Amino acid sequence: MKNYLKHHEWRIIEEGFDPHYNKISESVFSIGNGRMGQRANFEEEYSGETLRGSYVAGVYYPDKTRVGWWKNGYPEYFAKVLNAPNWIGIHISIDNQKLDLAKCKTEDFRRVLDMKTGLLSRSFAATFPDGKKVRVDSRRFCSMAHGEIGAIRYAITALNFSAKAVISVYVDADVVNKDSNYDEKFWEEVYKEASEGKAIVTAQTKKTLFHVTTGMRYAIETDGKKAQPERINLEQREKFAGNVIQLNLEEGKENVIYKYAAILSSENHAKASLVANCSKVLDEAYNKGFEKLFEEHSNVWAHKWEACDITIEGDIAAQQGIRFNIFQLTQTYTGEDERLNIGPKGFTGEKYGGSTYWDTEAYCLPFYMATAEQKVARNLLVYRYKHLQKAIENGQKLGFTGGAALYPMVTMNGEECHNEWEITFEEIHRNGAIAYAIFDYIRYTGDEKYLTEYGLEVLIAISRFWAQRVNWSSHKNKYVMLGVTGPNEYENNVNNNWYTNTFATWTLEYTQHALSFVKKDDESRFSEILKRTSFDEKTEVAKWKDIIEKMYYPEDTTRGLFLQQDGFLDKELMSVSELKKEDRPLNQKWSWDRILRSCFIKQADVLQGLYFFEDKYSPETLRKNFDFYEPMTVHESSLSPCVHAILASRLGYKQKAYEMYLRTARLDLDDYNNDTEDGCHTTSMAGTWMSLVKGFGGMRVKDGKLCFSPFIPEQWKSYSFRLEFRGRVVKIKVSKDGTETRLESGDPMEIWLKDEKVMLK
Amino acid sequence: MKNYLKHHEWRIIEEGFDPHYNKISESVFSIGNGRMGQRANFEEEYSGETLRGSYVAGVYYPDKTRVGWWKNGYPEYFAKVLNAPNWIGIHISIDNQKLDLAKCKTEDFRRVLDMKTGLLSRSFAATFPDGKKVRVDSRRFCSMAHGEIGAIRYAITALNFSAKAVISVYVDADVVNKDSNYDEKFWEEVYKEASEGKAIVTAQTKKTLFHVTTGMRYAIETDGKKAQPERINLEQREKFAGNVIQLNLEEGKENVIYKYAAILSSENHAKASLVANCSKVLDEAYNKGFEKLFEEHSNVWAHKWEACDITIEGDIAAQQGIRFNIFQLTQTYTGEDERLNIGPKGFTGEKYGGSTYWDTEAYCLPFYMATAEQKVARNLLVYRYKHLQKAIENGQKLGFTGGAALYPMVTMNGEECHNEWEITFEEIHRNGAIAYAIFDYIRYTGDEKYLTEYGLEVLIAISRFWAQRVNWSSHKNKYVMLGVTGPNEYENNVNNNWYTNTFATWTLEYTQHALSFVKKDDESRFSEILKRTSFDEKTEVAKWKDIIEKMYYPEDTTRGLFLQQDGFLDKELMSVSELKKEDRPLNQKWSWDRILRSCFIKQADVLQGLYFFEDKYSPETLRKNFDFYEPMTVHESSLSPCVHAILASRLGYKQKAYEMYLRTARLDLDDYNNDTEDGCHTTSMAGTWMSLVKGFGGMRVKDGKLCFSPFIPEQWKSYSFRLEFRGRVVKIKVSKDGTETRLESGDPMEIWLKDEKVMLK
C-alpha cells in the first residue's frame, strides 16, 4: 500500500520524482481511447526502471506456450497483448548530455492526469551534470474523438544557458514484450520513410501478420512562433524512422515541439492503404493543431462524463477513486468495435495476455450497460457470438461433441490462450457467465430480440456443454459435476461446486425460455437455427429437464448453507482474522497444497452465485451463507470485494459494505496489492462501480423497472450517479437527508425506490 | 509395439539396420556398471537420428526450472541426469568420405548385447559412395570389475581396396543435454591434454562444479600385430582432445583399435588428483589389455548371475525378457555407494531427470534385497537417511514445522526437483513408501538394528509430517487428509485417498514399534535421538495414537470396498473394455480433466495398498477390491501391472497374473509404449522380477521365514529363481510336476512351501 498520490476530485497528481514509484505511476497515469493506449512513459530517454508500453486494440501475438509439463489439450500458443511501436519518443541532448531523469537532477517534478479531459501533463526542472538547467512541460492525450491520433505538446526552456539542443523525434517499432516467453521480438519491418518533419514505419507481427503503421509529424515553436531548426537530419534504422533536429535554445525562451502521431492497424485499413491513410490522418492532425484536437477530445470526455460520472461529497479520496475507475473503464472500451473487448489490464500493461476473461460478462457488462448507449453492451455480447464456432472447437478438443461449446478462459481471437489444466480445462463456470450476460443484458435493456438474432445459438451450445459435462451418479441417484474449479481458484478439481452446478441448471432453464421466445418471435429464424445447429429439440430438452430435476447441490441443510463443493465441511474451518499477518497474502506465502486444503477463499464463490441469483433465495439464506463464507474470504482477487459489498449492502451490513468498497476503490491509486506497476486492475474497476451503484445504491432491475434501495456510508455527505436506462438518463442522489431521483432525459417512467413506486417525469 | 529383436535366451539381437529403430536400440543395448553407463551409440560418426548419451553416476546439473505458472514452493532448479563427456568416439574417413551409416550402404548389420557377459558387439559391412567397402566389428563394455574403465575393440577391414584411413580417436566434453531447458550447455572445460596415444579432458559442470575427467589411451593392431600409424596429429579444441591417425588399410587385413577409457569424477577423487589418477587408471587398463579386462569384467557378471538369474523353460521370449530386466537392474545399481540410487531410466536415457523416485522403495528394494548382499539394500535406505535434513527443509518450505519431513518426489541430492503442484506438493504417499522400505528391509533381512542406527530418525520425521498433514473434521468427527494425489496419478487433489490415509496411520504405528525397539536396544542412542530430534515422546505419541484411533478411511461397506478417495462412487463406473481403441492411451488422447473425472486408473492405488499390507486384510476383501478396481485400470504406468500380477496370483487368477506379467516383461524389448527411444523403464523392471518371484512364486517373508505358494503359468515348462536370504542362497524351481527347493549355500533353515514347513539343508 502506497500513499504518494495527492487527493483531488478530478485529478491524479504526483509531486516529486521517486524512481521507485515510476512504474506504478506509468500504469496509473496511462491514457487511452479504446483504439489504443499508452503507459505514462517519458517522452525523453529514461535509463531507470520503466515498463515501456504502447498498445493497439486487437493486435496480438500468439507466443509459443511455455509449460513445465505438457497436458493433452493445452493450446500451443498464448495470445499476448503486444507492446506496439513507440510514438511518443522525443529525445533531447544538450552538449552531448542526454536529458534522462535517471541521470539529471530533477526538481519540481509533477505528473498530473486530468480525468475530466483525459490529459496527461508532466513538468519538471532538470539539471545536467554540467549544471545546465532546463524546464520541461509536456502534455499528451490519445484522442477520444479520433481513435487513431495521439498528440503531444512538449515544451523545453533553457533556464540558465543558451546552447544548441539535439532533438530526436521519431517512431520506433523495435520494441519488445517484457513477457515474451523466449525473449523474441514480435515485430518485423515492412516499410519506413523519413522526410523533413515526418516519419512513418509499418511493422508487422510475426505469425499473425497484423500490420501497424505508426507515423508522426511535428511542428516547432519558440516563444509562440514557428521556429526554424538550424539543421534537420533524417534518421532511419531497422524498424525506426525520425528526424534529428538541431535547435538553438535561448535562455528563458520556451521551445515547443508539437508531435502528432497516427497509429493505424490492418484491423481497420487495407494493408496496401495503410501508409497513405496514415499520411492523411497525420495531415489532418497537423493541420488542426494541438489545441483544436484537444478541444475535440475533451468534448468527447465531457459528453462521456455526463453519462457516467459519480459524485461523492465529503470524501475526496473516495471521489478521486471512483472517478479513476470510471475513467479507466471508459478509455479502455468504447464499444464501437464488436471485435474488441476489455483486457484485465486495459491498455495499462501487458500482464495476463489475452484480452477477454469472464470478467467482461461477470463484472464489466453492468457498467457499460448503465453508462453508455445500448450498442456498447450489445457489442460485448456479439463478440462472444462471433467466437461461437471457436468455442465449439475448443469443446471438441476436450472431448465434447454435437455442437457443445466451451468458451475459453482467456482469449484474443476465440481460441484458448491459457494453459493450467485446473483453470483451462476445469474453470468451466465461465460458460455460465457468458449465458448469464445474455439474460442480464436483456433484463436491463429489454432487447429480447437479441435472443433471436444471436443469443439462442450461444445458449444452445452452452447448454449442450453442461448436459454432457454432468454425469449420473448411481451412488447419489443424482446428476453430479466432477472435477471443476469454481470462481474461488483456491480450490482446484473439486466435485459439485455449488456455483457451477447452479449455473448449469440455470442455463438449461434459460435456454428453454429462449427457445420458446424465438419460436414465437420469428418462426423462420427459429427453424433456421434448429437446422443450423442440428438441434433435436425433443430429445435434448428432455435431457435438460431431467438434469434440472435431478441435479445434486451440496448443502448443509441443518445450517442452511450451500456448500462450496463436496467435502467443504471436512476442512478446518477458520476465520481470516485467525491468520497471522506474515501469512498474507496467502498466494505469496503458502504453498499451493496448503492453500487448497485450507478453508480460505480467494474470491466470492457461493456468494457470487447468490449475487447473480439473488431473487431465487430468501434473505435468510443470503444472510446465513454470507455470515458463513465472508469471514473465510481473503479477497486475494480484486474481483471479490465488490460482490461482498453488494450482498453486505443488501443485508444491511453497512460497515462491511463500506469496508469492501474501500478495498477496491483505490486499489491501483494506492497500489494496495503491490502490483500496479504491471498495469491497472481494469476489469475489477467495474466491480467498484457495482459496489456503489448496486451496493450502496441498491440498484436492481425487476420486471423491466429500475429499483433502488439506497443507503449512504456514514463517512460521506452525499453521492450521486447517473444511469442510462431504456432511452432515459436517470440521476440518483443519495444524502443523509434522503434520496433524490431525477429523469434527466427521455420519456417518463416508473421506478421503485425502496418499496415505493415513484414516477419520474 | 515392435518386434524387431530376435529372441534368444541370453542375447539381445538386432539384425539388419533400420534407422527408425536406432534410438530404441540405443536404449535397449545400453551398457553400464553402476558407476557409469553408455547408450548403444555408434563409435563412428552418425548423422542420422540418435540420442547420444554417456552418464556418470551422481553427476547432475540443476537446470533452471521451466514452468508455465509459478507456484509458491516450487524448486528453482530441476536436477538433471547429465549427458557426460563422450568416451566412445572413433571417427573414420577414407578418401574424405566419412564412415557414417546414415550415408554409407550398410549390409550384414548385427548388434548383439550378450547379457551373460555384459558385452555389446556390433558388426556390419559398409560401402562408401565411391564403392569402397569395409567391414567393422566393434565390441565394448563398461567394466563391472573396475567401475571407472570402459573398453572398446574396434576392428575395421578394407574389403575391396587398400587406402589410407584417417582415424580420430578422442574424448569430447562438448556435449549437450537433449532436455536442456534453455538449450544451454552444462559443461565447461577445466583441463585438457593430448599426446601420442593419449588424451584427457577435465570438464566441470556449471553451478554444481562437479569435475569429470575423461581420458583415453589406444593401441592399434593390424592382423594381430602392433601397427605403426603413418602419422599421428594431436587434436585439441574447446573441451575436446584426441589423436588423428593416418593408417594404411590393406585389403583383407583386419585393423583393430583398442580404445581404453577412464572416467573419473570428483565424487570419488580430489579435484586436484583427477588427472593424475585418470592417467593411472588408463595405464592400468592399457597394460592389462582388452582381453584381460574383459575376463575380469565377465567374471563379475558370472558371479552376479549366479545370485540373481531366473530361468524359464519353454518360453524363450519370456526367458530373454526376464534376463534383460535383471541385467539392466544389475548394471544400473550395484549398491556399493550409498550416495547413489536408481534413476527411472538407469543409464539408458536422460528423461525424467533426477535419480530417485518412490520407485526405489516401492519397487526396486525387494529385487536388490533378494539378489545381492545385504549392504546393497541397506545402502538404498541409508541414501534417504542422508537426505533427512533436506526432507525436513522441504517440509518447512511447505509450512510444516518441528522436524516434519516430506521427502521429495524426485531428487538427486535430497532437494525436490519436480514442479507440478499436484505431484510435488500433493503426491505425499512417497513418504509412506520410504517408511515402509525400512520395515520391508528389516522383515526380509532381520537387521532390526537398522532402526537404532538410522531408521528411527527417519520414521519420527515422517510420522511428524503425517500428524501435521491430517486435520480434524468436526463434520466427520474423524481425522481426514485433504488435497492429495495418490499413486493413481489420474486423480489429483483428492480428499482421503485410502492408500495415503492407510500409510499415514501405518507409519504412526510402526514408528511406535521402532521407538520401543530402540529404547530397549540401545538406551543411550535412544536418548541421543530424542534429544537431537527434540522429540516429546509423550505428547507426540499421544497425538499419533489419537490419529490412529480416529482416522477416516473411505469405504463402501455394503460392497466391502475400500474407496480410492472420497466421492469415487460418484463417477461413471466403467470397464476399460468399454473404451474405444482410439481412446488409448488415455494420456495421449484425452484432456486432463476428462481423465480426472473418469473412473479409469493409471496404476494400482487401493490395490497397491492391499499389496503392501496384504496380511491385514482377508482374502475376501482382497478379492472384492481386486474385482472392482482391476477392470478400471488402464496400466498407463509401467509400475502398475506387477502389483496386479502379484495380487492376481494370490487370488488364484492365474490367467490374469500371466497377462499382467507379460505387459511388463518385454516392455522395452518390444517397445510396448513407443517410448523406449528415450531410455528403458529401469525401475519397473524390478516390478517384473516381483511379478515372477512374489507373484508366480508366491514368495513372502513371515515371522522371519521365507514362504512360497508357487504356481506355473500354463505356457511354461518350468521356471526357477534364486534368493539371497539371511546368509543363505535358496533356489526354487517350479515345474508342472511340483516345486523343488534347494539350499545352495548357508546354514540349514526352515521355509514354508504352501502350507507345509520344509527344512532346507
UniProtKB/TrEMBL annotation, chains A, B:
Domain Glycoside hydrolase family 65 C-terminal as annotated: residue spans: 699-758
InterPro entries: 6-hairpin_glycosidase_sf, 6hp_glycosidase-like_sf, Gal_mutarotase_sf_dom, GH65_N, Glyco_hydro_65_C, Glyco_hydro_65_M, Glyco_hydro_65_N, Malt_Pase/Glycosyl_Hdrlase
Signal peptide: none
Glycoside hydrolase family 65 N-terminal domain: residues covered: 13-266
Active-site residue list: 489
One MF term in the entry's GO annotations: hydrolase activity, hydrolyzing O-glycosyl compounds
Keyword Protein transport: no
Glycoside hydrolase family 65 central catalytic domain mapped to chain residues: 323-690
Pfam family name, one: Glyco_hydro_65C
Any one Gene Ontology BP term: carbohydrate metabolic process
Keywords assigned by UniProt, alphabetized: Hydrolase
List of residues binding substrate: 358-359, 602-603
Taxonomic superkingdom: Bacteria
Family stated for the protein in its record: Belongs to the glycosyl hydrolase 65 family.
Protein name: Glycoside hydrolase family 65 protein
